[in-house]
Amino acid sequence: MSDTGLPIASGRTSMRFAWRLSRGHRAKLLLVAVLGIGSAAAGLVSPAVIGVLVDAVQSGTADGRLVLWSLGLMVAAAVLGAIGTGVTVVLAARTYHAMLAQLREELVATAMHLPQGMVERAGTGDLISRSSDDVSEIADAAPAIIPAFTMTGFTIAVSLIGMTAVDWWFGLALIILLPIYVLTVRWYLRTAPQIYQAERAAMSDRAQQLMESQRGFDTITGFQLGQQRHQRVLTASWSVVGHSLRASTVQNMFFGRLNLAEFVGLAAILLTGFIALRTGQSTVGGATTAALLFMRLFGPINQFLMVFDTLQSVAASLNRMIGVVSADGPARSQVARSSTESAHVHVENVHFHYDEQSPALRDIGLSIQPGESLAVVGASGAGKTTLAAVIAGIHSPTSGTVTRPERTVVISQETHVFAGSVADNLRLVKVEATDKELCEALETVHALSLVRTLPDGLETRVGQGGTPLTSAQAQQLALARLVLANPDLAVLDEATAEAESAESGLLDRAARAAISGRASLIVAHRLSQAASCDHILVLDSGVVVEQGNHADLLAADGRYARLWEAWSRGRVSPNSDS
Ligand SMILES: Nc1ncnc2c1ncn2[C@@H]1O[C@H](COP(=O)(O)OP(=O)(O)OP(=O)(O)O)[C@@H](O)[C@H]1O
């Protein structure tokens, strides 16, 4: 999956990105660290106080006042520690969620500009999984990281110093634990990242399967493929379960090794305490403090090392999210040959391959001046849609250069009607448009009378759950949107209506009105669309085989003339709908 999936950032890139993301939050993050250390310090008061009490009891100097003071101190430390921990966790969660929201915004913004080819190869499920599954993984785990590191790190350091101060033998006893911890962490860091990465990739695949099943619902029910799709979703879901189980197994093995270290550590400390008492190197109070400090260490040490597990999980998700955000760079450099600095369209020596075997476009050259219309015609599979996509910047050319105006709008074969009112659908491209402007745009594409017949006019709800629109009506709505957007270049690749239908004539007129006065490229699925354009380009197997205007091409009696003859055969007037 990874070779065809969206890019995954390296750890270093993610670190750099996370550092940039922390801008504006660093003071809060520092406060989280300081509060964490303060709370951890409060937790160390009790063992120290108990040690003093034990010694006082042993030496007979303990009295009620000392006990009460000690108790008061321990309660105050516990309360302060609890408040400090609570504030730390809430502040950390808030700060991380703000950073995460920023990352998600950047991810969505970048995803909108990724080359379509890249998203198609990876599958939209991968993108959706990165902006949902990965975000929740980070949201769940990340807030614990800084408090855990600072609180446990501080507790470990102070406990070690305290124990060594009681008797350096206790400090030495702990050193034998070091190799066990180092080896465990090394093993874990070698094993866990791939497992988490594979788990996230399986989640992407599951999202993809689910999404395809929803999108292709009609086809699936139409061809009775329900069982087959169900099986695919099931396989993808079980794959996630398998990977999650593998991750849990590695986690358990990790914790098992930590338990072994605890056992060895406790045995060493008890032995050291016994020897220290026997040789008179330590008092009972000192040994008690050392033992309590050591017992208190298990939790923080395990927590400290468990943060590595959290870190691996967060890093796997972060690398996937940042992979998309930083794909912006490569994606933009990929389209470097596509420039948007010009008011006209200029295409030179353009080649485009979907795959290595069969080039979809070969050595294309053309230009469209402002206000000029160019039609692309050719048999099915000739490369018309591909050429439109390359010119619109949806696909980057494999080689050659494309220059186009920045304000380019594409109307493709699939026009989506968004759930909302007709006005909402139009205002997508111009939020501030008045009702009058909306009506003018609809009038331009001959759709105003249609909208007036709808139950609530402009406010009629359309799209999912609303008044159903035919494909041709949806196309008219898209054309009205184009008029409102008022781009310098319009690329139309709409094949909604059959030739000679009442709708085809209406759509052709609507399209002509919508593109009037601006540079336009029209993928002419009906030759009536081409006849009215200033210039026509005939494609065959990705190569331009003819070009000129309608009259010249008919006079040349070549490929276009034959296409025209075939298309208009049987029609009373081939231009009747144009
Ligand atoms: N996403 C894709 N991946 C691989 N090959 C593709 C893809 N899209 C199109 N092709 C291939 O590229 C070639 C050109 O296809 P394209 O859709 O541009 O032709 P077209 O002239 O627009 O066809 P139609 O009129 O049927 O829409 C065809 O051989 C097609 O099979």
TrEMBL record:
GO cellular component annotations of the record: plasma membrane
InterPro entries reported in the protein's UniProt record: AAA+_ATPase, ABC1_TM_dom, ABC1_TM_sf, ABC_transporter-like_ATP-bd, P-loop_NTPase, Type_1_exporter
| SUPFAM superfamilies with a match to the protein in the record | ABC transporter transmembrane region (SSF90123), P-loop containing nucleoside triphosphate hydrolases (SSF52540)
Q: Where is it located?
A: Cell membrane
Domain ABC transmembrane type-1 residue range list: 30-313
How is it placed in the membrane, per its record? Multi-pass membrane protein
Q: Where are the transmembrane segments?
A: 29-54, 66-93, 138-162, 168-189, 254-277
* Keyword entries, A-Z: ATP-binding, Membrane, Nucleotide-binding, Transmembrane, Transmembrane helix
Q: Does the keyword Transmembrane apply?
A: yes
Question: What is the protein's major site of localization?
Answer: membrane
Q: Where is the ABC transporter domain?
A: 345-566
Asked if the Swiss-Prot or TrEMBL record annotates the protein with the keyword Lyase, the reply is: no
Single GO MF descriptor: ATP binding
The protein, known as:
ABC transporter ATP-binding protein
Organism encoding this protein: Gulosibacter chungangensis
